[in-house]
Design brief:
Distance between the termini: 26 Å
Order of helices and strands: EHEEEH
Strand content: 25-35%
Oligomer: single chain
Helix content: 25-40%
Shape: globular
């Protein structure tokens, strides 16, 4: 599973952030890792320099073998919370897809 990080100009995509994202994503999606070829992480600060509520956006796109990609989005006050919320949404979607495939 390849993890690709994309940030806008307002969020620093440094090594610390990349390392944090790699570890949390691999841990949280370990049950689905054999079917996921790539995860794209898109982080943005929608209000730029201004302070605001829920202005950090995390969009996760999972590329699954022989299936259409799945994308989920979450907004929060911090990047970490936005990533965790998006991961929960993505896991729920993957569990739904996995359940449907087992029923056929």
């Amino acid at each position: 599973m390849i993890i690709q990080l994309n940030t806008d100009k307002n969020i620093a995509g440094d090594e610390r952030l990349e390392s944090y994202l790699n570890s949390i994503i691999k841990e949280e999606l370990s049950n689905f890792s054999e079917h996921i070829t790539r995860i794209e992480v898109h982080l943005a600060d929608e209000n730029s320099q201004k302070n605001g509520q829920n202005d950090k956006r995390c969009m996760l796109e999972a590329r699954i073998e022989n299936k259409q990609p799945i994308a989920v989005t979450s907004h929060a006050n911090t990047v970490e919370i936005a990533v965790n919320d998006a991961l929960e949404k993505l896991k729920a979607s993957l569990e739904t897809i996995e359940g449907r495939l087992k029923n056929y």
